[in-house]
Amino acid sequence: MNSLEANIRDNKTKGELNAIRKNGEVPAIVYGGKDENQKVSISKKKLKYLIEKENFLSNIITLNVDGKNLNVLPREVKYHILSDEPTHVDFLRILPGVKIKIEVPVNFINHEKSPGLKRGGVLNIVRRKIELKCPSEKIPDNITIDLDGIDIGESFKISSVKLDSEVTPTIQGRDFVIATLAAPTVMKEPEKPAEAETAEGEPGAEGAEVAADGEKTPAEGEKKDADDKKAPDKKPSEEKK
């Protein structure tokens, strides 16, 4: 589990907020449960490191606030419109028994063991994340799809995923598809039969015709040229006397 050091802040003006940011800190707020919202600030450098890691918004983080550890879930990060630097974070307190909605990433394993992928099949991912409703202390890290033995034409539906009894998808009433293993989009052209290759490669297969006695008859163009040579020259018309 990732952790962050958090400092309690008591700013009341926009200028004080800007001062916090200039000191390399990011303002944040912790909410949820019966306790009041708590204003804190955290290191921007460490926050950016966690954001760059995969699935920041679905991972539980331990905040160390004045020596006390508090488990929270990042719910929203706001960024500067120009610099794209984080400017504010909302954290939700993790309270036992309280159910929340959260998007959990789908993870595919054993690609090399799929006969369908070996034959050129394409893994068509319909949903890269699935929204779940679950107790905050039972949030799964991811939903794992095993491709071992999967062939072209097979699909994965939410019913094939093993979830805790208290963890349910927010989409109810239909067995939605997560991914399919489809046929290649470009099929390999079959090789030509040996006989066809031989026929195409033989000289004289097209054009000249063969007479019954085995000799070649002239092609159409050659015959015309020969006829033109045999034809007598036309005499110039006689002048009228």
Present the secondary structure layout.
Elements lengths: L1 E7 L5 H9 L2 E7 L6 E6 H9 L8 E5 L2 E12 L6 E8 L5 E11 L5 H4 L3 E4 L3 E7 L7 E4 L8 E3 L10 E2 L7 E6 L11 H8 L7 E2 L5 E2 L2 H11 L11
Parallel strand pairs: 1-4, 2-6, 7-10
Antiparallel strand pairs: 1-3, 2-3, 4-5, 5-6, 7-9, 8-13, 9-12, 11-13, 14-15
Which structural traits does this protein have?
241 residues, disordered C terminus, 5 helices, four-stranded mixed sheet, 15 strands, RNA Polymerase Alpha Subunit, Chain A, domain 2, Ribosomal Protein L25, Chain P, alpha+beta, single chain, six-stranded mixed β-barrel
Number of helices: 5
Oligomer: single chain
CATH architecture of the largest domain: Beta Barrel
Order of SSEs, N→C?
EHEEHEEEEHEEEEEEHEEH
What is the class of the largest domain in the CATH system? Mainly Beta
Beta-strand fraction estimate:
35-45%
Number of strands: 15
Number of domains: 2
CA-to-CA gap between the ends? Answer: 121 Å
> Which fold name corresponds to the CATH topology of the largest domain?
Ribosomal Protein L25, Chain P
| Outline type | elongated
CATH superfamily of the largest domain: Ribosomal Protein L25, Chain P
